[in-house]
Design a protein that fits this description.
The chain is an alpha+beta fold and about 170 residues long. It contains one helix and eleven strands, in the order E-E-H-E-E-E-E-E-E-E-E-E.
């Protein structure tokens, strides 16, 4: 049954099926817009801001440096900081007088920020994956890949730590 509706403005007749198709498409577009907003909110909820200091990076875009004179947490073995170098969120841990470990501060499961090392473990705040603070390896999932590690070079004469992000 194909009925028509007369509009009062121009007395043009529009079949109900065209109106129904328009309303169906409009509702679909609204649903897509709401879904997109929800997805953006969920992704943003997983991202964590840089909450710990650190001297930003310097050097080329593939390396960054930290002056340990201004990073008091890294002046002793076992100390750690969370910092951003060239837009990469990194956790830096001092493992010995001359050695440092630099790990990506984002979980390999869903890209959420991970917490600071505690009792030898780095934990994802979103889904509970646990990583070894000794090397970034996975201790418990859902993550299956280790935290990305970055090569570090420490100059004890200048007290400068260089982190290679490449």
């Amino acid at each position: 049954m194909n009925t028509t509706t007369t509009t009062q403005h121009n007395q043009e007749q529009i079949p109900d099926t065209e109106r129904r198709d328009f309303l169906t498409q409009a509702a679909s577009m609204l649903g897509l817009a709401v879904s997109a907003g929800t997805i953006v909110s969920l992704v943003n909820a997983c991202e964590q801001p840089n909450t710990t200091g650190g001297s930003g990076g310097s050097g080329s875009s593939s390396t960054g440096t930290l002056d340990l004179a201004s990073e008091t947490a890294l002046q002793s073995v076992g100390g750690a900081i969370r910092t951003t170098i060239n837009r990469a969120q990194i956790i830096v841990i001092r493992t010995s007088q001359t050695q440092f470990l630099a790990l990506a501060a984002l979980c390999t499961h869903a890209g959420c920020g991970v917490g600071m090392p505690a009792n030898g473990v780095i934990e994802c705040r979103c889904h509970g994956s646990r990583f070894s603070a000794a090397d970034g390896s996975v201790l418990n999932g859902p993550a299956v890949m280790p935290l990305r590690s970055y090569r570090t070079t420490f100059n004890s004469m200048t007290n400068i730590l260089t982190i290679n992000l490449a």
